[in-house]
Amino acid sequence: MLATPNLNASFAALADPTRRAILARLASGEATVMELAKPFEMTQPAISQHLKVLEGAGLIVTRVEGTKRPRRLAKAGIEAMDQWLAMLRKALEKNYDRLDGVLAAMQSDTERKKR
Amino acid sequence: MNTMTKLTLQTEGDTHIVVTRHFAAPPETVYRAHTDSKLIQQWLLGPEGWTMPVCINDPRPGGKIRFEWTHPKQGSFHLTGEYLELKPYSKIVHVERMHLPDPTPDNHVETRFDPDGSGTLMTMRMTLPDAQTRAAMLATGMEHGMEASYVRLEQMI
């Protein structure tokens, strides 16, 4: 899975508290720009700007329904973020399995020197 | 042996990721493998296929860290950092950031080495800055499924 560039965008997208709040709101179901703007006391263009960043990061998607454009969470984007920790775990497991070998070599080295 | 050496990785609080791992060597040996450049180059390589041609590592407070990794197909990137505190053979505190090529936010890492039977229990505690931490919180879905991710998201506000 080569989700890394998009992941960086995801992290950047999440750096803003308004965008995190938007994601939290969308976690409970899809919403229009107007519905999203209401609790934030922000203009619709300001909210639209945040939505653009979130969509660019692959965290949300837009559905077209007549004149409405409701947004919802993008499952794939959120799952890519889930994979970030999974990737970290995998890299660490590989490292420490190698370290086991290094430690064994260090210890047999010490044993030899003692003799 | 598998349960003994199994890695644990957990999110903790709002800003931490805690990793534990048992090693079948005493703390002094494990500590040395974490601070000696020649030894670091042998294991701190991540996924298969990567090597570390450059390993600059000055293990004293204020000492610099620079690791450069390269892969025949996937290119290269590097990490820089500084040591904050070293307590032979039980504790290392440092900060690090990746350059991809833009630097990621600083990751503050405290690594402890405690005697555990005839071996060592390593506990590595990473403290991530806000943005990345929050993102990583999302990632707890790994353990508890999507539902928990959403609950965490809600708790962020």
Can you tell me the number of structural domains of chain A? 1
Number of domains of chain B: 1
Q: What oligomeric state is this?
A: heterodimer
> Largest sheet of chain A, described in full?
2 strands, antiparallel
Write out key terms for the chains shown.
heterodimer; A: 115 residues; 5 helices; 5% strand; rod-shaped; B: alpha+beta; Alpha-D-Glucose-1,6-Bisphosphate, Chain A, domain 4; eight-stranded antiparallel β-sheet; 4 helices; 25% helix
Walkthrough of the structure:
Chain A contains five helices and two strands, in the order H-H-H-H-E-E-H. Chain A has helices spanning 4-13, 17-27, 33-37, 44-56, 75-114; strands at 60-62, 71-73. Chain A has 115 residues and is mainly alpha-helical. Chain A has a single domain (4-87), classed as Arc Repressor Mutant, subunit A (Orthogonal Bundle). Helices cover 69% and strands 5% of the residues of chain A. Chain B has an eight-stranded antiparallel beta sheet. Chain B is globular, with a radius of gyration of 17 Å. Chain A binds chain B through residues 4, 8, 10-12, 14-15, 17, 20-21, 23-24, 27-28, 75, 78-79, 81-86, 88-96, 98-104, 106-107, 110, and chain B through 5, 7, 9, 11, 17, 19, 21, 23-25, 29-30, 32-33, 39, 42-48, 100, 102, 104, 130-132, 134-136, 138-142, 146, 149-150, 153-154, 156-157.
What is the fold's blueprint, element by element?
The complex is a heterodimer of chains A (115) and B (157).
Chain A: H1 4-13, H2 17-27, H3 33-37, H4 44-56, E1 60-62, E2 71-73, H5 75-114
Antiparallel strand pairs in A: 1-2
Chain B: E1 8-12, E2 16-23, H1 27-35, H2 37-43, E3 51-57, E4 64-71, E5 75-87, E6 91-99, E7 107-116, E8 119-127, H3 130-138, H4 141-155
Antiparallel strand pairs in B: 1-2, 2-8, 3-4, 4-5, 5-6, 6-7, 7-8
